[in-house]
Amino acid sequence: MKIKVNQFYSNVDCPREFVCAYCGVRVYVTDPKDKRVRFCCDKHCENYHKHKERYEMKPRGRETSGLRNYSAKDMAIKLYKEKKEAEETENIGGKK
To answer: So which domain of life are we looking at (predicted)?
Structure first.
């Protein structure tokens, strides 16, 4: 079942699932009268729009936990350190 929420969300599935843009909580909506598509409550909607710059780079969801805040240079450094750590742990047993 598709419903119209507003001018930006015209054809939205009725039982739907989304991640709150403010706190990152996964929300599951089953009621067709419930028009939420981005935030889990009104308080989060107000706070997000008042202080939007604070929440832009906050990681969302479980899949990208903590990786979104790294720049390209920082990510390269992080991957290099992890690779070096992995090589060191392999060589702990001794070289043959």
So the answer is: Bacteria
